[in-house]
Amino acid sequence: MATVKTDACIILLAFLCPYVVRSFPGSQPQPPRSTTSIPTSPFAPTKPSCAPLPPHESIFNSDLSPTSKLPGNFDLDTWASLFASLDEDEAVDYWIEDWEGVIPEDLHGTFLTVGPSKYERGGVPIKCWLEGDGAMTAISFNKGKVHVKARFIETKAYLEEKVEDRFLYRGQFGTMKTGRHGWSAFKDSFLKIRLPPINAFDMKFKNPSNTKPLYWGGRLLSTFETALPHELDTQTLETKGEFDFGGLMRPGEAITSADPVLDAILQKKSGHAFTAHPRIDKATKRLLGWSWKTLLPKHFGVPDPRLWRSAKGKKSRTESRGAGLEVTFYEWDEAFDLPFPPVTIRVSDCPSPPHDWVVTPNYYVWMQSAFRLNLLPCVLGLKGPGECMVPVKGEEARAVVHLVPRPGGRHAGKPPVAIEMEPYFMTHWSHAFDVEGDGEEGNKVVGFAAGWDKSLFSPANDDGHMFGHTYRGAPDFSRLPIIRYYRLDVDLERKRASFVAVPSLAKTFLDFPKVHPRFEAEGAPRHVWAMACNDRGVSSPPQGYVHLDLGTGLVESWHAPSSAAALAAARQAPSSSLPSMFASPPLSLSAVDMNRDDTGGELSVEDRTKHIVVGEGVLAPRAACEPGKGDEQEELDSYWMGVEFNALTGRRSLCIFNAADIAAGPLCKLHLQHSLPWGIHSEWAPGLLVAVPEEREQTGNVIRNKDGQKEVEGKEFSKGVAK
């Protein structure tokens, strides 16, 4: 029995899913602005000069091409400075008292962001930023008032390591446990070697809970894709513990076998891992997600004795046989009840689950990429599993797209479909939809995602390290492949699948694409927003946002402006066309933040630009928007918001844009008081208000005079009520 447990632990270590580096965007020059592509009011839909083709066709028949090169420029040292630990003893609980512009009064909800926020223990740095302990920041909006609260996610590992002030768990990207008397810190710093004894054969990998926030059914969660999520108190952000979805899942090592006897032996150790990217279907009002377990290697290449269970409880064999992963899909209503039984598939030759997935009304769409795992260094404690992922090279490299019928969909109860294709790797999906056949054409699935193309699997691209390139602990963009925006076409009749880069953004490095929440799991939206870098054709930190109109192929963008001309261009929309609450012109350049250094000296255009980066943006529908209209007006009747990081001044600012015209620049900037690290994912939680103090001591619209001094004007407040 002991031998079986040891073997199971080693296999788990081999297949614990590595973290996919969130390579950050690239960007695309803005097409010439015209009266046909820019709305006349902040929340009016774009009026194209001619009727657009369907969203999944028109952009691929467009002859639009980039017209100019954006002023891409960044500095790796200042970029790395953003990855500094959040103060564990700092109480982050304050009102926004310093802002520019006018805060929209119809924003009601909370901007949530989660990311690694602790980068060292006992003076020993983590090896990769993705391994840092997570912290959540909640920025709540209510009738023009904004309150900020932040707190570390106090996982079991975090609390234990905080007391010991050393690493007690291995990380996914190579951070090792440190010795009781600082021995590992000594040898890492001076001997420059890593001795394996205290890490060898130890499969207790840390769950830092640092990836994505989720608010559903009155519960606030923080996810991490190799373990279960953690639940946080919605009022205090205190950590309640790991969330097991009402007993459906169990913490522990995500392993299983096809043998009931072995499963019984492994029962005490076996647990579940849950995707870091659950989806919300607004049409059905359901939370969608999946758990996974690694299958033991004794079944590699052996036909799967387990059966796929349909929503009706009937059994039929899957097309995916052999060993690799066992994946179970769930749908929860707002009470966290299951309207349908879970659907389980088994996927062969798959060392790790995908980082993200996407949903249509009829299918769960799940990509299996071409990777192998070099197990030995991981087992010996020399590397983390994320460092051991190796892409399959050349003609052997193939990806598989799995389409699993959703319970309640048109194809419910049918076997999953698995289609081989060229080896693309998708980092983040924006959306997908079904295209029903018309007699001549069969049924199809169309999806859009950011990711790497097949060049990632070229024999020429072999540096011996798949993910996790860092520079001073930060993502090293000079060593990361370019991420582009692609369209997936799956022909279900011919069993064919292919990716093609969206032409309007073919040379743009971008990630974290978003659509209106109403269309995340249903329908074919017209508009997509994403985070992007300032240069084309190269990889660099994210320095702006792009907005793509799938109906016309037009792209508009906003980037950290680098000149007075850029500021003037961003402000060309007449203020008379703005509603009264947007009477101030949009902001896009802070004189204090960007024009002068600490001594008051003039900064060059190059210096101003290279110190500004942005975080993932989110779409926040307006409170006044009629729900469920499902048209273009609803898509544009929203705000786009994201955090701007100024590495030169240390300032973090939440920028709020009119989603219909992000090129005009932010409507307002809310300056944060705490040192928010550059994070991973952000979300908008409508209706959620994290508890705030009853009284406000002082607030008001803050503007700056020509000398950079703050002046408070506009409103007086007492106990949070405007006079």
TrEMBL record:
It comes from Nannochloropsis gaditana. GO terms for molecular function: carotenoid dioxygenase activity; metal ion binding. Keywords: Iron, Metal-binding, Oxidoreductase, Signal. This is Retinal pigment epithelial membrane protein. Residues 1-23 form the signal peptide. Residues 26-49, 696-723 are annotated as: Disordered. It comes from the Eukaryota. Pfam families: RPE65. Its cofactor is Fe(2+).
